[in-house]
């Protein structure tokens, strides 16, 4: 499958309107197999804010969730402000990262019965 990630960046400056203009304004080819697109949503599309979580890595799903929680604990004021911004689409831009490398995510259980993911390729 292809790899894709949406990364939101929100400005707390209410004087800027990031929702105006074309939906996909530019494409940066980071390498032959990957590119990054800067996208915007129309004003009033604020429900999208609830689909974004803090960026976090970890060796399995549990550690990624713990690291996401830690990101919020480190700076709770910013995360509260992020969710309370008046019109999220006017205040945010989204970077769409796409990669055409073929990769597979495999789900297995470890000896304790917990889910483990393995990525091959890409």
Order of helices and strands: EEEHHHEEE
The count of β-strands is 6
Helix fraction, binned, reads 10-25%
Structural class: alpha+beta
Which runs of at least 5 residues are low in confidence (pLDDT < 50)? none
Could you give the distance between the termini? 9 Å
Query: Describe the biggest sheet?
Result: 4 strands, antiparallel
Strand order of the largest sheet: 1-4-3-2
Overall mean pLDDT stands at 84
Radius of gyration: 17 Å
Count of structural domains = 1
Number of helices: 3
**Beta-strand content bin:** 35-45%
**What spatial form do the alpha-carbon principal axes imply?**
flat
Q: How are the elements arranged and paired?
A:
Blueprint (H helix, E strand, L loop, with lengths): L2 E8 L13 E8 L2 E6 L21 H14 L1 H9 L3 H4 E8 L3 E7 L5 E7 L1
Task: Tell me about this structure.
By secondary structure, this protein is of the alpha+beta class. The chain has one domain (3-121). It has three helices and six strands, in the order E-E-E-H-H-H-E-E-E. It has helices at residues 61-74, 76-84, 88-91; strands at 3-10, 24-31, 34-39, 92-99, 103-109, 115-121. The strands form two sheets. The protein has a four-stranded antiparallel beta sheet with strand order 1-4-3-2. It is flat and about 55 Å long. The termini are close together. The relative contact order is 0.29.
């Amino acid at each position: 499958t292809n790899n894709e990630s949406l990364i939101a960046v929100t400005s707390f400056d209410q004087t800027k309107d990031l929702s105006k203009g074309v939906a996909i304004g530019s494409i940066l080819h980071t390498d032959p197999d990957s590119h990054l697109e800067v996208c915007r949503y129309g004003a009033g599309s604020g429900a999208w804010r609830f689909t974004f979580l803090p960026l976090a890595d970890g060796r399995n799903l549990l550690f990624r969730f713990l690291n996401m929680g830690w990101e919020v604990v480190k700076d709770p004021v910013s995360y509260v402000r992020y969710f309370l911004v008046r019109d999220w689409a006017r205040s945010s831009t989204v970077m769409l990262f796409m990669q055409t490398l073929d990769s597979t995510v495999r789900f297995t259980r470890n000896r304790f019965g917990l889910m483990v993911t393995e990525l091959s390729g890409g």
